[in-house]
Amino acid sequence: MPDGHPDVAALAGLLAERSRAAFCLALLDGHAWTVTELARYAGVAVSTATGHLNLLVEGGLLTEERRGRHRYLRLAGSDTAELIENLAARAPRCPSPVRSLTDANRRRALAHARVCYDHLAGSLAVAITDGMTASGLLTWQDDPRLTDRGIAWLVTADIAKGTPPPGWHPHIRTCLDWTEQRLHLAGALGAALYRHMVTAGWLSETGPSRIITLTTAGRAALRQHLGLPDAALAPPQGGLSP
Amino acid sequence: MPDGHPDVAALAGLLAERSRAAFCLALLDGHAWTVTELARYAGVAVSTATGHLNLLVEGGLLTEERRGRHRYLRLAGSDTAELIENLAARAPRCPSPVRSLTDANRRRALAHARVCYDHLAGSLAVAITDGMTASGLLTWQDDPRLTDRGIAWLVTADIAKGTPPPGWHPHIRTCLDWTEQRLHLAGALGAALYRHMVTAGWLSETGPSRIITLTTAGRAALRQHLGLPDAALAPPQGGLSP
DNA sequence: CGGACGTTTCGGTCAAGCCCGAACTGTCGC
DNA sequence: GCGACAGTTCGGGCTTGACCGAAACGTCCG
């Protein structure tokens, strides 16, 4: 390991370009994308995307897997995803005007519930975090940590497989939500919660975007488990109410 | 608050330039620097530095305070410092060859003990973290957290002022050390420890750089409090031993 | 007041790098 | 094998922005 100064400018430079940043933001959905998909998403030519993606892979932010005539690209890992979300949360907002009704709906849905690499983000994720706290499953004393009741809940809700050893706690990290500017759960717990909510049919991954929708079953489950009111479980209405 | 996409490229772009990155790295010492000092440090003309610093202030990464004919610049806050250290830890190393003996000494000293905004970093900081863990003051069960003995130690060592309320824990964050590639203590505890070690005369801030030296009193105190061996308390020798 | 000093503004030079289209390589399916 | 498709390479046009020196501005101090 050559013992030189860390080249912050080189790493930041990888993300300092509209197309490359757009790629990374898109890949925050945790899935693998092809070159063509990413190029279309960012609105650049495929040849341009190829060059950018080469840089991102060389720089270690992305990994690639070549299969046949396809090249699949993913974020290199959850730490990379965290770095990007961290940056996104602190970045200035570029005021992109709403162009259509579907645009407004999509934006509202994205702010409500979306994938953040391997866990849930958006106002729903914040509501779940708050609900777990209010129900005494999660404590923020010192650091975020599951209470004994929280551990028991994981087991009865079948989120944790089998009976955990005494003293066991899942690894918790917090992730700064860039739409809510508040913390939601990430780390092993956040990922396990998300996986469970999908397999149990509480959430459905609607399409190719990061948008997630809460099913009727999910709404009922969250109301029952965490006592979340319906107001917290629906995207905000676009009416004229204050 | 305009509800647009986060402009990651804009934020990253601020750090994607050698001079600007150098400024931020220098300011990680937590002190305020003037334009001329930063220009000299980064090896650019003062006029060039002015332009860069304007951008960094506008972008919210730095704050300025104008006093007379001086303009003092600091990092905007501890969260900004963490973002930069985070980036530095993941950034590739640019192999800058050692040019002189003083160069080598400075590099070794920097890797051994340095300021990281408001807490200590380097192999000494990692050794202290390890020592506190081995002494049962700190536990990594779940999350890093002081044990009851750790809390008591803070009080007897006079690091925490007065008697804390029952159930109190100082806020702990971890910071990825870019020379050691291991975690050391940051957050409120890291900052309190550092302040105490300086005021108690265990550490001395030698000069204008981030380098910190451990005093004789500090060496004795750490041996007594945490049982750290002398080998962990000195910068590695540059000899031929394997 | 006048000189020293810290900082800013301006103009001009220069290099870096983003972008695209067109041609090319390799893979899949009929 | 032959089109359709995914991706890469190359060359040229173009914008961006980093850099410096010189001049101007403001503050401090004798």
Q: Which strands sit side by side, in order, in the main sheet of chain A?
A: 2-4-3
Stretches of chain A where pLDDT is under 50 for at least 5 consecutive residues are: none
Biggest β-sheet of chain A, characterized?
3 strands, antiparallel
Share of residues in helices of chain A: 40-55%
In what range is the share of β-strand residues of chain A?
15-25%
**SSE order of chain A:** EHHEHHEEHEHEEHEEHEEHEEHH
The gross shape of chain A turns out to be globular
Q: Averaged pLDDT of chain A, please?
A: 86
Hey, which two chains have the biggest interface? Answer: A-B, 50 and 50 residues
Number of helices of chain A: 11
Q: What is the straight-line distance between the termini of chain A?
A: 58 Å
Helix/strand-derived class of chain A?
alpha+beta
What is the radius of gyration of chain A?
A: 19 Å
The oligomeric state of the chains shown is homodimer
The tally of strands of chain A reads 13
